[in-house]
Amino acid sequence: MAAWAERLAGVRGVLLDISGVLYDSGAGGGTAIAGSVEAVARLKQSPLKVRFCTNESQKTRRELVGLLQRLGFDISEEEVTAPAPATCQILKERGLRPHLLIHEGVRSEFDDIDMSNPNCVVIADAGEGFSYKNMNRAFQVLMELENPVLISLGKGRYYKETSGLMLDVGGYMKALEYACGIEAEVVGKPSPEFFKSALRAIGVEAHQAIMIGDDIVGDVGGAQQCGMRALQVRTGKFRPSDEHHPEVKADGYVDNLAEAVDLLLQHMDK
Amino acid sequence: MAAWAERLAGVRGVLLDISGVLYDSGAGGGTAIAGSVEAVARLKQSPLKVRFCTNESQKTRRELVGLLQRLGFDISEEEVTAPAPATCQILKERGLRPHLLIHEGVRSEFDDIDMSNPNCVVIADAGEGFSYKNMNRAFQVLMELENPVLISLGKGRYYKETSGLMLDVGGYMKALEYACGIEAEVVGKPSPEFFKSALRAIGVEAHQAIMIGDDIVGDVGGAQQCGMRALQVRTGKFRPSDEHHPEVKADGYVDNLAEAVDLLLQHMDK
To answer: Signal sequence span per UniProt (chains A, B) (predicted)?
Structure first.
């Protein structure tokens, strides 16, 4: 066992990233990462509390869970913390009426939100929806507001599909921030509030929890800043240079979720 | 005369921005800004040296000049400093073979550039060409390079067309910088090297020169950082808040190019 595995002591809860850890998205829905279906099953049979914590914003929670179930995962909608539902709550609380720059696949999450006469812009991973025309419209809405509010569902740099690396929402958030001279509010990882809401859902304190993700900054760095431990998997968007990241060092690096779960359960047995 | 007009003493050369100062681009080519055709003519009849200094990168210099001539301006290709020719020179000097993310209208400027097996990305105001697919391809090229080089033709936040404010290349440059974790090299305003090459072309020192533009940061701030004076016109992308910009204060604000030229020529007469 790696020396760092000592750091797994006292873990009571596990937050799992989805894309790049459970599966790689892509044509036809994507493919499960080898060993991950069994790893999730073993985790859920153990005494550890498990919560899925994703920045997925191209699909509704329902669709994402349906896809994962079809790939063989034991997962339900109630076990997933995702940014779109969290955003809807914020919009309602603050009386914000969004102009949406989002993927069509997630639009139904906003069905009961008032979108008349927008007073903010909500941006998410819109994929092909990030056309110049759509970006320019979001820009124009922001420039017409006296107090422009930009909410971004995550700020990921990129993710991995089966066909290759894909630009995530983060760059487009930066583009609007720069063009408008504003700063976005991020709902999703690595926002501390987002991790905390996932932990609250399983009743586990940050110091008793570990995050497992493929994003060295969004998953690992974000979780650590909340007082959690974090492992990076060498699947999904992982790149070898991540192990020498100038600012973030994971508590451990594992080949995949299966190895992470092996170590967590071995450690529990001691 | 405004008190600040005292600062116009000793001006020998004038750099003129084009879009938003001479004309507003838009459907059908655009429209001249009232008084600007005559203002350019009067400047060129005066002893002042004149150079056009633009970040225009949707059109070739030839097309831009042709358009301006049709609008009535006295201007020739040799009088224009523009980023595409400057970029081609840099590419040749450094043996760089670009993947281009640019507007079709400017592609012919790169006709004699080797683009096989790209080892850098050149980004310019691509307009509708800023599709997700094109951005993602540029991103993937950069991520595959050991030493990714991103050259951006300007870094403007936005410009004004007759139909409204339009996102410029700057936001898209920021998006790629963020997604790839790199810093772009800017060719164009506000790069000091770009202003200096415009000044060299008319043989005028920075302290004897004044920039007239509609961009408080790119034109005014950039020129001032080179030791030039700079006026902002209240045309083009000018917004009232520019007069209270937190970091940049123009040497003077004028309603349009005609007023700027009035002041410059009045001051010369004294």
So the answer is: none
